[in-house]
Amino acid sequence: MIKNTWCIYFSPSGTTKKTVNQIAAGIQKEWQECDLLAQREPMPELGPDDLLIAGAPVFAGRIPSPCAERLRGVRGDKTPAIIAAVYGNRDYDDALLELQELLEGQGFRVIAAAAAIAQHSIFPDVAAGRPDEEDLRQLQNFAGKCAKLLESLPQPGRPSVKGHAPYRAPAPVPLKPSADRSCTRCGACAKICPTGAIDPRYPQETDKERCISCTACIAACPQHARAFRGPAYKIAKAGFVKKFSARKEPEFFLL
Ligand SMILES: Cc1cc2nc3c(=O)[nH]c(=O)nc-3n(C[C@H](O)[C@H](O)[C@H](O)COP(=O)(O)O)c2cc1C
């Protein structure tokens, strides 16, 4: 019998949250949320009778570094965990394995894993509108299997997910969002930015060294002033859409 279910996610453009919540809704009626983008301290400690459902977006084939850093503050005690790596229809490379191994190191027992597809947050024409109805149906079906598995724990073993260690080196993304003249300097972008790349006094400027292009600032801007812009973006977008538009399906791994 599970005492408390926790949904913990890092979700700059909202699709990882949606994915994690869909899994949770197929298992429990209620759960607690920990949004790693907003919440910095204190991180929850989970016990053996709790359940963790953790989600991370895939950035350059890896978990975004602020997400990994913040997850290292979450502790389990042989706590069962279901994990999801959410990616924009290119590939998830080593991100799911990285998430699994990170949480195992934090005291969690990963019993099931999903590599789910979502609209690409830099190139939204790719996998536009996903997770869609079919994705949500598949996630619900996966959640049903997880619920059954939770009834029959403990069981030996761990799900064998795709990925290789050492993980691929995270390639920096050269495209950075900027603000146009509709910026009112409200500071919402600076407040949400996980790397401190936006100075609240000059929110129209972005520190390109610090920015990880996560898109949290784009999603948070009430004026829709922030976006990826410029000729380099347009060229990259055309190439990316051409190469990665063929629909991929989610993958699921269970004990
Ligand atoms: C900086 C950055 C790097 C990304 N790298 C990848 C990638 O390697 N493979 C992929 O398929 N999608 C990639 N994506 C797309 C995201 O994984 C995808 O849009 C995800 O749904 C974003 O999650 P969120 O909505 O919770 O922010 C990347 C997105 C960003 C912002």
Give the mean pLDDT.
96
Please identify the top-level CATH class of the largest domain: Alpha Beta
Largest sheet: 6 strands, mixed
What spatial order of strands do you see in the largest sheet?
Answer: 2-1-3-4-5-8
Bound molecule kinds, no repeats: flavin mononucleotide
Number of strands: 8
- What is the fold-level CATH name, i.e. the topology of the largest domain? Rossmann fold
C-alpha geometry: globular
Strand content: 15-25%
Along the chain, the helix and strand elements come as EHEEHEHEHEHHEHE
Task: Please tell me how large the radius of gyration is.
Answer: 18 Å
N/C terminus separation: 19 Å
Low-confidence stretches: none
Total domains? 2
Q: DSSP helix count?
A: 7
What key phrases describe this protein's structure?
metal ion binding, 7 helices, alpha/beta, Alpha-Beta Plaits, 255 residues, binds flavin mononucleotide, 6-stranded mixed beta sheet, 28% helix, Rossmann fold
Please characterize this protein's 3D structure.
It is built from seven helices and eight strands. The chain has two domains: 5-166 and 249-254, 3-Layer(aba) Sandwich (Rossmann fold), CATH 3.40.50.360; 178-227, 2-Layer Sandwich (Alpha-Beta Plaits), CATH 3.30.70.20. It has 255 residues and is of the alpha/beta class. It is globular, with a radius of gyration of 18 Å. Flavin mononucleotide (FMN) is lined by residues 11-16, 57-61, 86-91, 118-122, 173, 213-215. Residues 11-16, 57-61, 86-91, 118-122, 173, 213-215 line the site of flavin mononucleotide.
